[in-house]
Amino acid sequence: MFEAQAICGPKWLQFPTPTRNCTPKPRIGFPTGISNPNVLICQNPIHFPPHKNIKSQTPFAVNASSASAAVGSAEYIEEAATKEKFQTSLSLPGCSSSLTLLGTGYREKVFAIIGVKVYAAGLYVNQSVLNSLNAWKGRSTAEIQEDSSLFNSIFLSPSEKSVQIVLFRDVDGKTFWDALNDAISPRIKSPTPVDESALSTFRSIFQGQPLKKGTFIFLTWPDPSKMLVSISSDGLPSGVDAEIKSENVAFALFDVFFGDTPVSFSLKASVAKGLESILK
């Protein structure tokens, strides 16, 4: 929203009365008692109404490092580093209601000291998730970001949450899985047969599958006991590609993004900023 601005004629511009056979030269004098001559003093300001037709950002979709944009009839948030656009709300297979965007970020890998952006990511949650976060009202972004118990509460909530990944470059499925597995495995100290079976199912989704730039990958937690995986190279997915039934694997993957050592610091920071705004 734009505030009304005042425009006035400066009181201290003085022009002498012209005399015959001479060209008047304006003399500019500054009022006495003012140390800064750049300050204008207005007696009768003219107020202009606020600019209309400005679309405000929804209060729940907050991102510290992103700008909102209207594309067609849908609302989007643009991730600043990759310029990828995320819908502020969407409906996903396996979810009982629409989910709302809480923050965005990106994943970067370093090759030969050069940072290469791999994908952009956004966290969506069912708004009822916020009901379990009253204990963190009034906390700063830094306090929220450093408090692992808050993110654990989000995971343990029985309501849906989902991470959307948008690939920023082509990558083969095996490479993508290997990167995920390298992050997940250290978080499961003693995998059970159920965990091993879940990891095998997870791996089979990506093996031999080329993943093109712009592909959507959704990792959705309907509840803490399982995770749904949906992959689409043509817009939002229409179905679920796999169901991972292991709470250990489900939590390990959530911790990959929102634990103490996240793979995307920008995503966690953006989500923390969004939560600060919501939990005021």
From TrEMBL:
GO molecular function, one term: intramolecular lyase activity
Similarity annotation: Belongs to the chalcone isomerase family.
Domain of life: Eukaryota
Domain Chalcone isomerase as annotated: residue spans: 85-276
Name assigned to this protein: Chalcone-flavonone isomerase family protein
Coiled coil: none
BP GO terms, sorted: fatty acid metabolic process; flavonoid biosynthetic process
Organism: Malus baccata
